[in-house]
Amino acid sequence: NFAMDMKRPPGSTIKPFSVYAPALESGYRPDSILKDEPLSYYDAKNFDGTYQGEATMYHAVAQSLNLPAVWLLHEMGINKGYNKAKEFGIPLAASDKYYGLALGGLETGTSPAVMASAYGVFANGGTLYEPHLITKIIDSTGAVIVDKTKPKGKRVISKETSDEMTSMLLGTFSNGTAASANPYGYTIAGKTGSTENIHDTSKSADQWLIGYTPDVVISSWIGFEKNSAENAIEGTNGANMSLMFKAQAEGILPYTQQTPFT
Question: Are 178 and 211 in contact, with CB atoms under 8 Å apart?
Answer without folding.
Answer: yes
